[in-house]
Amino acid sequence: MMTNQDFSHTLSALRKERGISQRTAAEELGISQALLSHYENGIREPGLAFVIRACDYYRVSADYLLGRTTEREGAAVHPAAVPGVRSGRQRQRREATEAARPVINAVSLLFDLLARLENAAVLSAAARYLSTAVYLLLRQLYQWDPAASLGQFSADDDAISSGLGDAELQLSRGRYLLSLRDCAREGANLSLPNRETLRREFPAAYPYVSAIVRDTEDRISARLEE
Question: What does pTM read for this prediction?
């Protein structure tokens, strides 16, 4: 049975394991340091929204965070044991949703910021850049099953595999950067909100964006150390 002590101990241990301060964790989770301290010391119990953010932030299951299992990814449950679940497809969809949630939230925040520039060229270039990346992911996925087809891939396979797809991605990236440059030259206000403002304006999305930035930069730093 889960106790408040189980939750508070696990929450504190996960933060210390990552090697970050309480202040940093609180900022990235979208709450005050005082409130996080209360959670970690068992003085207060959080709501469901915070539990979900904390699970995503520390990459553990809710069962693990709440002290219901020692498995960080959660224990497997047979679909027949879950009311209303007749197959593994629902579970797969939930897993897909959880995996996509950080990216979806980050893209939503990104385009909200881009829209503030009031520049259609920037929005169009950003959408093209992301669309090209999604296209390549889909194309590469369907290449593994020649029997299946979306019925829309008409570009030559050799052209894609030879690097033209990656070249289009880089071209889209270049157009995005140039559109930002032109926007600045036209006198647009490119003053972006700082971390505190982002956390306040996007309380639900900010923790996901912060996690994406942190994890990607960790991977880049690891490459530099190779």
Answer: 0.61
